[in-house]
Amino acid sequence: MASPEPSAAAAGADGASASQAAVVEPIRMPTPEEIKGQDIWNNCAVRSVVSGVMGGGLGVLMGLFFGALDNPITTEEMTARQQIVYTAKQMGRRSISNAKTFAVMGLIFSAAECVIEKARAKHDTTNTAVAGCVTGGALAVKGGPKATCVGCVGFATFSVMIEKFFDRHT
User: What membrane topology is given (predicted)?
Assistant: First the structure.
């Protein structure tokens, strides 16, 4: 008796049906709200501000953590209350300092990567390397030209390594 499916007869004795292997699902079109959300997120200013705010939040958390680890040198001479006050002040100072640094770092890196990506019309590791160089150079510019070059190379290398680790670009 003839098989109703021509692919089943071609499958042979193993009994595997080709129609079971190839399942085609319909393409889902994005809703107008999803398109608006993508348009907003593709704006370099919005992306940079969000990255700056998130970097600032990360800086606050890191400042709280590392500020709590700072021990006063004269712990034997301080009472428990003095140690608590000292630690709280250290945590506050470190949090503010780290929040500023990470916010600026996130803002510069995100803005540079977004602008480079839009200019090149490509989404690849080169954008990350150049944005890392711009960020590292900008953060180290107060140290002079040598520090700027080292910051550029160091941050670009770090950015590319993180990019490869997360395997965002293939």
Answer: Multi-pass membrane protein
What is the domain extent for residue 109?
A: 41-121
Instruction: State the Cα–Cα distance between residues 81 and 36, nearest whole angstrom.
Output: 54
Taking the C-alpha atoms of residue 113 and residue 130, their distance in angstroms, rounded to an integer, is 8
> Considering the chain, what is the average pLDDT of its residues?
85
State whether 56 and 106 are in the same domain: yes
Residue 21 lies in a domain: no
pLDDT digits (tens, 9 = 90+) for 97-109: 999 999 999 999 9
Number of structural domains, the chain? 2
Contact indicator for 54, 105 with CB cutoff of 8 Å: no
My answer on whether 104 and 131 are in the same domain is no
Distance CA 128, CA 117 (A): 9
CB of 110 within 8 A of CB of 46?
Answer: no
